[in-house]
Amino acid sequence: MVFLFLVATMISPFAQATQSAYAEQDAERLRSLLERASSRSDSLLVRYRLYPLTEDASVLEGIPESLSDGTAREYALLSGLWAYRAGEASLFSAFRYGRRSTHLLETAKAHAPKDPFVLLVEGQSLLFRPAIAGKDAAAAAQRFATLAEIVEKEGVAGISQTEANAWRCIALEEAGHTREAEALRENMRTQDLAPLYRQFLESPPDV
To answer: What is the pLDDT of residue 130?
Structure first.
């Protein structure tokens, strides 16, 4: 237990800096963090945050197909990166990359299904995947709700409760739970939101 606490303490500053830059939509700061990433975990995390802000394909270059000794967090982040690649690939490659992303996510869940990054990536996967591949916005909203509870109770380096609730709001809207989504949105608007989360509420990403 002491060892796990020390590991969490060591990764917290980098993960928190990455989360802050992402929320502020500061791509240049994220690029600087990527250059300074001293571990595989940090590199995967920054790439996972940087790509959706820039859609720069070079951010995804060199990512491994799998890991032989990864943590739940690393498998989840790598799953998210392959999902990004699938979204930009040709039809044939998109299918292959999508299956790879799904396999990595299942591996992450086998390690720790309630790991915060597993919940975040799984929720996004359920929200963005095609209907034929199992899209389920209501299930995604449940994952984000669980994530928000964990962040509130325990604190998580690299994920804020605001982020979890912003994604939950998007998922609730997509699932047709309009009243619940609007109530959550109005509550969030009373907060001092970082630019990315204001954008999520005012102009959410297409799902």
So the answer is: 85
- Position 176 scores a pLDDT of 97
The amino acid sitting at 182 is E
Residue 159 lies in a domain: yes
Report the distance separating Cα 32 and Cα 54, nearest Å.
14
Q: Is the dihedral of CA 52, 189, 114, 69 positive or negative?
A: positive
Please, what is the end-to-end C-alpha distance for the chain in angstroms?
39
45: in domain: no
Looking at residue 133, its pLDDT comes to 84
Query: Domain containing 182: what range?
Result: 119-207
Q: Count other Cβ atoms within 10 Å, centred on residue 115.
A: 21
Q: Does the residue 185 lie in any domain?
A: yes
| Structural domains of the chain, count | 1
Give the amino acid at 128: F
How far apart are the C-alpha atoms of 101 and 126, rounded to whole Å?
A: 12
Mean pLDDT by 10 residues, the chain (207 residues): 38 88 98 96 98 96 94 98 92 91 97 97 95 93 98 93 97 97 96 95 89
* 147 occurs within a structural domain: yes
- In angstroms, the CA 164 to CA 168 distance is 6
Confidence at residue 151, expressed as pLDDT on a 0 to 100 scale: 96
The Cα 127–Cα 130 span in angstroms is 9
CB 47 within 8 A of CB 59: yes
